Amino acid sequence: MDTLYSIQQITEITGLSAHTLRYYEKIGLVQDIYRDAKGYRQYTETDILWLDFLIRLKETGMPIREMKKFADLRSEGETTVSLRKELLEHHYQYVQSQIRQQQHHLAKIVDKVQYYATLEEQAKQS
């Protein structure tokens, strides 16, 4: 049998709070979490991988409603592979545009740092 992890262990592994884990389960982002005889949640390695993927989607700006849509499609099985791929391709394009925008901002900041470095040098020579 797979190793099982308590909700406290999962919070340490993933960095998600227990509240967030319960919320994700409540809205259907995380499904079919095993419960022990006392009703405590028990997570598997597969659950950890899924949570890691959800974290990546969230940290790259995917809205919860889109994450939920992906989770719902995932739970429907193989017939939704094309739809899931399409959803991820759309998100990929979004992330790529965010990276380009951040690179542009970074270039402007570098320009400003160089400008102030030049001013510092000029002040030292005066």
Task: Describe the secondary structure blueprint for this structure.
Blueprint: H1 7-14, H2 18-27, E1 34-35, E2 41-42, H3 45-59, H4 64-76, H5 81-125
Antiparallel strand pairs: 1-2
Helix pairs in contact: 4-5
Walk me through what this model shows.
72% of the residues lie in helices and 3% in strands. The chain contains 5 helices and 2 strands. The chain has a two-stranded antiparallel sheet with strand order 1-2. The longest helix has 45 residues, at 81-125. Helix 4 (64-76) runs antiparallel to helix 5 (81-125). It has 126 residues and is mainly alpha-helical. It has helices spanning 7-14, 18-27, 45-59, 64-76, 81-125; strands at residues 34-35, 41-42. Strand 1 (34-35) and strand 2 form a beta hairpin.
Short description:
By secondary structure, this protein is mainly alpha-helical.
Characteristic key phrases:
126 residues, mainly alpha, 5 helices, 72% helix, 3% strand
Order of strands, widest sheet: 1-2
The parts where pLDDT drops under 50 for at least 5 residues are: none
Structural class: mainly alpha
Largest sheet: 2 strands, antiparallel
- Estimated helix fraction: over 70%
Report how far the terminal alpha carbons are from each other.
Answer: 75 Å
Q: What order do the helices and strands follow?
A: HHEEHHH
User: Overall pLDDT, averaged?
Assistant: 96
> Quick one: how many beta strands?
2
